[in-house]
Amino acid sequence: MKLIKYLSVALIPLLAYLLFWPVPITPKPWTPPPPSRTYPYNDELKGIEKLAVGFGIGPEGLSFDSRGRIYAGFDDGRVVRFAADGSAAEVLGNTGGRPWGTRAEPDGSSVLVADAVKGLLRIAGGAVDVLATQADGVPFKLTDDLDRGADGTIYFSDASSKYGLPMMMADVFEHGNYGRLMRVDPYTKQVRVLMDGLHVANGVAVSPDGDYVLVSETLQYRVMRYWLKGEKAGTSEPFIENLPGFPDNISYNGRDGFWLALYAPRDPALDFALSHPWLLKLVYRIPPMLRPKPAKHAWVLKLDPTGKVVAELQFNGGGAYAPITSIREMGPYLYFGSIEYPAIGRMPIPSALLPQQTNRAFETEPLAAGSSEIQQGHD
Question: Which has the least CB within 10 A, 37, 264, 280, 343?
Fold first, then answer.
């Protein structure tokens, strides 16, 4: 009986804390629809090769120049260029923040950076130039990803205008709609908001003909399309929705579609909690180190130009390269980036997804720098 009494004395304050302690979030109830289709498990991503192992943590926002060199941002602020095999590392600059998205110039003379802390930047000759830190008087709190149109216009996302990097998970628990998709003229540096009210605006990709731009809306399990040209110009619509996981970076592969990284599979417990604000507050009160962690599940989807899933690659076994938060196609390879993993990932594109003429080209002779096959993989 004494044991029960002592346990009660200890548990009552704990229960009161979990239920009533003030928290800085105001969750908005949302009942997510089920995934639009089932995705049987496969282990296509089992053989991912690890490049630049030990160089740094979280090589994110991969991009390439016309020579096939890799650009990535690390969690210590460095923006680094590597050879295609992950060797010959060159530190191009340090943002002093957390670079999440990169977009290299074809000649490698400079690189655009979406830095979660510092805003939209350009690095050239070791110097870091700030292009934008706010739009319509509202500062960026989590500048996320970017892409550039053929005319030089830069399209980029701010995941949240409310919560910065130290409180990034607050947006998840609040299911906040503080994300924005924007564009900026690289010469005048004038910023225009294209879409707001997004639930974590994440990866950005411009269509090959410049008719539209895609943005991942992570907490809505969908990718949105904003029309830049044509009868629908200035309007938006879902490109793909009811996804099986949290969509992250997205990139055009240079020929027939888009690659989409899924940070982690959807969690039924989280989906349930999203419609119960009191439960989200309760979980938020749990110390971060004790909260349930997302599954280490490597997962990417290939989408055709209409948003249809044409391939999906997975692996959740031991040693999985996960979470995958960015994916790029370059030549015969898929390259993977992650905000957590201490290496860049690479694997050959499955033969069924690689054009036959490209297979032959790589089998017969090495590519010359600047060849059309190299350029087709530049995002």
Answer: 37
